[in-house]
Design goal:
About 20% of the residues lie in helices and about 25% in strands. By secondary structure, the chain is of the alpha/beta class. The chain has 2 domains: about 250 residues, QueA-like (3-Layer(aba) Sandwich); about 80 residues, QueA-like (Thrombin, subunit H, Beta Barrel), CATH 2.40.10.240. Helix 7 packs across helix 8. The model has no long low-confidence stretch (mean pLDDT about 95).
Length: about 350
């Protein structure tokens, strides 16, 4: 069976889309989906330690979301919205600009709230993306901490900036440590110190990987033939220490449980780069996992409820039935039940354990 993008569509009631996070974080709901028979059970996320097996190894993404949203102005006073995507080098950024169609190469924009920082338009990259020079040059993280805003996805609506302090705290995992993401690894948003402590008590080990989530994570797949889709590249790192823990767990028959699609992409990218002997590795990955993909390093995963026609939904569908295409029906049936039962979807929504 050859799958098309339309096969990953589903009916979505807009009221399912979570606009605010649950408090406390671990009070979100947790659906447990068993791949062997498609059965589903319903829990609360704080139950997770009791649902996993002693000896399981959880792999979490320790990336930290930077306040990547910004505004700038043309000399005429016209306002342009921007999103930082990545730092290309000292004083050089790749950004997304909204409302810059009339802008020209060489034009300078004033970065709002920065006290004089200017962006010079150097190269138009297409689809709203620009290569810009930053004057005076300073690390992007330092500038954005001063002027930036939380890069919430477009389906989370904010009428004003009054919730910015709360969003800056909530749209971040409690263990985030390495700045670089422009979107949160949302499966990790449900973890609390209470859950982490309980995992340790149950003999469940943790290890950390890094993948700096890019804006492309929210982009729908526009081509119908999945083979034609070009996956966005994201920087990742699997340290030698983490690779060692994973290797030991696999040799002893313990499960590798990835927290989020980002951790899955690190594990599976590393497996494809390293072959049979997993080792520390870093670089850029554009790995696109969709049915009937195989998974070499991931035995179970924790994830959220994802956008229609997205690469994230395609990844979890593949994981439901590795090497086959039947996982599409399994995941869409689970989503339909989640909607009927009032689960909350997308970044601030509820979670799923697929095992």
């Amino acid at each position: 069976m050859t799958l098309k993008t339309a096969d990953f569509d589903y009916d979505l009631d807009p009221k399912w889309i979570a606009q605010q996070p649950v408090e406390p974080r671990d009070a979100s709901r947790l659906m447990v989906l068993r791949r062997s028979d498609g059965s589903r059970r319903h829990h609360i996320f704080r139950d997770l330690p009791d649902l996993l097996n002693p000896g399981d190894l959880l792999v979490l993404n320790d990336t930290r979301v930077i306040p990547a949203g910004f505004t700038c102005r043309r000399r005429s006073g016209g306002r342009i919205g921007g999103m930082f995507l990545r730092e290309l080098g000292p004083g050089r950024w790749e950004v997304m600009l909204k409302g810059a169609r009339q802008c020209r190469i060489g034009q300078q924009l004033s970065l709002t709230g920065s006290g004089g920082t200017r962006l010079e338009l150097i190269e138009r990259l297409g689809e709203g993306r620009w290569n810009v020079g930053v004057e005076p040059a300073a690390p992007a993280v330092e500038i954005l901490q001063q002027v930036g805003s939380t890069p919430l996805p477009p389906y989370i609506r904010r009428e004003d900036r009054s919730r910015e302090p709360a969003d800056r705290a909530h749209y971040q995992t409690i263990y985030a440590s390495k700045p670089g993401a422009v979107a949160a690894p949302t499966a990790g948003l449900h973890f609390t110190r209470r859950v982490l402590d309980r995992l340790a008590e149950r003999g469940i080990e943790l290890t950390w990987v890094t993948l700096h989530v890019g804006l492309g994570t929210f982009a729908p797949v526009k081509c119908e033939d999945l083979c034609e889709h070009v996956m966005h590249g994201e920087w990742f790192e699997l340290t030698g220490e983490a690779a060692g823990k994973i290797a030991v767990a696999r040799q002893s028959g313990r499960r590798i449980v990835a927290v989020g699609s980002t951790s899955v992409r690190v594990l599976e990218s590393a497996a494809r780069l390293c072959g049979g002997s997993l080792a520390g590795v870093s670089g850029w990955t554009s790995l696109f996992l969709y049915p009937p993909a195989e998974f070499r390093m991931t035995d179970a995963m924790i994830t959220n409820f994802h956008l229609r026609r997205s690469t994230l939904l395609m990844l979890v569908a593949a994981f439901c039935s590795p090497g086959a295409t039947t996982g599409v029906q399994m995941i869409l049936a689970a989503y339909a039940e989640a909607g009927r039962l009032g689960y909350r979807f997308y970044s601030y929504g509820d979670a799923m354990l697929i095992e």
